[in-house]
Amino acid sequence: MIIVMQKQASAEAVARVIECIRSRGLQEHVSQGEERTIIGAVGDERVFHPNELERLPEVERAIRVLNDWKIISREVRQQDSQITVRGVVFGGEKMLDIAVGFKPDADAVFIDPFFMSAGPYADVDNSSEKAQIDAMRQKIERIHELGKPVLVRIRDVRQIEAALVTQADILYLGGELMSNRALQDEVGRLNTPVVLCKDKHHRVGDWLVAAEHIALRGNHHIILGEAGTLSFESEHTYRLDVDAIVRVRRVTHLPVIADISSLWHSDMPQDVLYRLSLASGANGVVSSLGRLS
């Protein structure tokens, strides 16, 4: 069961709810957001009726949630969550164009400064860590001068600090990090928006459980990202998982973006993928194409 406290609920009211939960033999899990505290009652919640908890002071509502993801569930919040970064609203009515590489008319810019090729003979950047951070800072500063937020892809927990020091607006976690609980713990303790991408071979349920893990640590500024799932075609390894976007838009209140930058090919050009993303309900698209009308 999830208990949603009123805005700016007092510590005394939260403690009273926790005491009530413990008195029935259940355990609590408290998630402290910027405005609201959300308390999960863990255990056999049949000992409660939601009305009992809703009668307690400063409780907005109590909801039974059957899924493993609760805080991010649309049962807890009917309205779409909106995350505003430098005046750009993720989750609003406008479909956002997120450019790979700077484009003047883009709403936001995606950069991948920590990319390393998996090939053993690929060129390796041998510049010092300080030089890499300075270069990233300069790039972000140039983008900020034009008032655009920057999404920075991180590939390891050690890169979080470098991204934050250089004023990254949003941390982008690729699908390979979807099972990295240590990294999710770290970003969950931040007050920085994060994009969590679904891994290519994981189900939607696994994706939402990972997002819930971040939310449980207190960071509710979560954007779901779909960047491709395994395809049955040998020529084209990945495809856009339109079904996944449609489903998460229905069962959660979180914004969703589609990253099609690495999915296009001769049989599925970027403009078609862009329109598929739009039709599926994605709130934004990461591409090198530019906005389509």
UniProtKB/TrEMBL annotation:
It comes from the Bacteria. Residues 144-261 form the DAHP synthetase I/KDSA domain. Keywords: Transferase. Residues 1-66 form the DAHP synthase ferredoxin-like domain. InterPro entries: Aldolase_TIM (IPR013785), Class-I_DAHP_synthase (IPR052899), DAHP1/KDSA (IPR006218), DAHP_snth_FXD (IPR041071). One of its GO terms (molecular function) is transferase activity. Pfam families: DAHP_snth_FXD, DAHP_synth_1. PANTHER family: CARBOXYSOME FORMATION PROTEIN, PHOSPHO-2-DEHYDRO-3-DEOXYHEPTONATE ALDOLASE. This is Chorismate mutase. It comes from Neisseria iguanae.
